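Q: For a teaching handout, I want to show students what a protein-ligand complex looks like in token form. Below are the inputs, and the small molecule is 7PJ. Please produce the holo structure.
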Amino acid sequence: MGVINTTPDSFSDGGQFINTQDAVNHARRLIDEGSDILDIGGESTRPGAAEVPVEEEIKRTIPVIQAIRNFSDIPISIDTSKPDVMLAAAEAGVDLINDVWALRREGALEAAAKTGLPVCLMHMQGDPQTMQDQPEYRNVVLEVRHFLQERINVAQSAGISHDKLLIDPGFGFGKTLQQNLQLLNALPDFKSLGLPLLVGLSRKSMIGLILDKPVEQRLYGSISAAVIATMLGADIIRVHDVTETREALAIVQALKEMPQA
Ligand code: 7PJ
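A: Here is the structure, written as tokens, with 7PJ included.
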């Protein structure tokens, strides 16, 4: 899954068109690099990020989705927590809702169910503004698993069938480095929930903390994390660097497909 950011430069007057065009060009590049899914988001959920008004989020994302749909039928996911964005994106032809709030925002559950689309339920402790202040768990693996099981139940009660759900432990969303590593190590435990497992580790601060490197120098660390996650059972890896990750994962794939001696 290749990441497309549509966060515009607010200082630029003609920003909207330029940034739609930039995002579409980036989409073409990620498709050329072999991305299987494009994840389009119009609201930064990085630690400390401010919320974006719904109209703005729609203005950022929908034109990009429409433009991609004009030349490609690649699966597209919309990275949003807002019901109106989910509905507009479904109308524009997305294939998956990727919600870091796991359908906990008001109206999101109903909107997602109404679209009939698959949904990725992600775990987050707290909210993006404060989640990294002091994450606390008694047992991070058990608590994240329990949360995801509960959200699966809630989604199913709202009419979203089990075979339309994906799960994600939410690396970096209200977790310390140690908690992130405990979750990574425990990925096989999440497989028992019986759903495809999506994992996002690309360029995240846990990699920066281990390497003591800024975000633009986390490629090798991100690739290594993607390899580990795939070895441990992740089905979809959300990344910024598609070519590099695909090559690394081709090795894992070859190993997994090898007939047992
Ligand atoms: C994730 C995401 C993730 C899912 C972001 C970043 C922050 N969606 N959206 N999983 N991360 N499902 O890329 O650093 O880990 S935005």
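A: Two things your students might notice: The mean pLDDT is 95. The chain has ten helices and eight strands.
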